[in-house]
Amino acid sequence: MQSGKIGPEDDGLPMKLLLRPATILALSATLAMPALAQISLTPPGLQKTAPAKSAPKKSASPKAVQPKAAKKSAPAKAAPPPATAPAAPAPAVDDSSGDAAYAAYQRGQYKTALDIATKRAETVGDPKSMTLLGELYANGIGIKRDDAKAEDWYKQAAERGDREAMFALGMFRIGGRGGATNRDEGAKLLASAAKLGNPKAAYNLALFYIEGQTFPQDLKRAAELLKIGADAGNPEAQYALATFYKEGTGVEKDIAKSVQLLKAAALAENVDAEVEYAIALFNGTGTLKDEITAVDLLKKASRQGSPIAQNRLARVLTTGIGAPIDKIEGMKWHVVAKSKGNSDPLLDDTLAKLTPDERKEVNERVSKWLSGR
Question: What is the pTM of this model?
Answer without folding.
Answer: 0.70
